[in-house]
Amino acid sequence: MRANFRLQRLFVETPLFPAAVHEADRDQFNYLANVLRMEDGAPILVFNGRDGEWRAELRFSTRKKLTLVAVEQTRPQPQSCDLHYLFAPLKTGRLDYLVQKAVEMGAGLLQPVMTRHVQGRLGSLDRLRANVVEAAEQCGILSIPGVEEPVGLADLLSGWDRSRRIIYCDEGDAGQNPLPRLSAITETRHALLVGPEGGFSEEERGLLRSLDFVTAIPLGPRILRADTAAVAALAVIQATIGDWR
Q: Residue 217 falls within a domain, yes or no?
């Protein structure tokens, strides 16, 4: 069932069921009452990442207190996406874009990875999680991807579950077409690794190429920025071995 984009959507932490009541926090009250100027009885769609999407109604119990009452479920909770997105932090504005697009493209988990040539600063994980929620609200997504603590590349690889294949974008690859290598992958669980703006170091590339659970792919004849490469790689992965099929 496709999302209804005619109604405002809001992420809540409250369990959702018929007549469930969610009390809006300060930021939600300001957004709904003061920014959107929604009135008593107005419909809204709410979701919590667990119980599907529900149509709710606004109730102003006082001038400064707003509750949302669940009326009926509009979409059931789908299975969470299983594609992991591993990324080197970028500069703040581009990192926000990268996180939002990863959510839109179906990433089920976001894992910051610290590499030798990282140029950006990760900043607050709360900011990343807020970007994840905002992207889900805007795009009709019901599952909220997890955001993990940052980890070094070597530590990530040493503790990796080898049943999940890592696909990484190698700007030094001699080829141009990623499809043959993606089509040859037999594993059903995948992770995409995109390096920093400065690229992987030779030592990091050597480590990645030495591991039998890692597949290097090219992304065409042009050099792409890290955030552009992320969207391009997510698209070809989803189209060939992901959930676009």
A: yes
Same domain, yes or no, for 90 and 199? yes
**Distance between CA atoms of 115 and 159, rounded to whole angstroms?**
16
- Is the separation of the CB atoms in 38 and 29 below 8 Å? no
Residue 132's SS3 state is helix
Residue 187 DSSP class: -
* Model confidence pLDDT, tens digit, residues 68-127: 999 999 999 998 889 999 999 887 778 888 889 999 999 999 999 999 988 767 778 888
CA 148 to chain centre: 12
Burial (CB < 10 A; 0-12, 13-18, 19+), residue 114, is: middle
Domain hosting 36: range is 9-75
From the list 232, 110, 105, the residue with the least C-alpha distance to 179 is 232
**Cα 173 vs. chain centroid, distance in angstroms?**
27
Any idea which residue has 């009250």 for tokens?
A: 29
Distances (CA, A) of 144 to 14, 40, 50, 51, 86: 14, 28, 9, 12, 16
Gap between the Cα atoms of 232 and 36, Å rounded: 35
Between CA 164 and CA 192 the distance in angstroms is 10
Rounded mean pLDDT of 116-144? 88
Contact (Cβ atoms closer than 8 angstroms) between residue 153 and residue 204: yes
Same domain (yes/no): 44, 93: no
Query: Tokens 């997105």 appear where?
Result: 85
CB 185 within 8 A of CB 241: yes
Write down the residue that tokens 């590499």 correspond to. 115
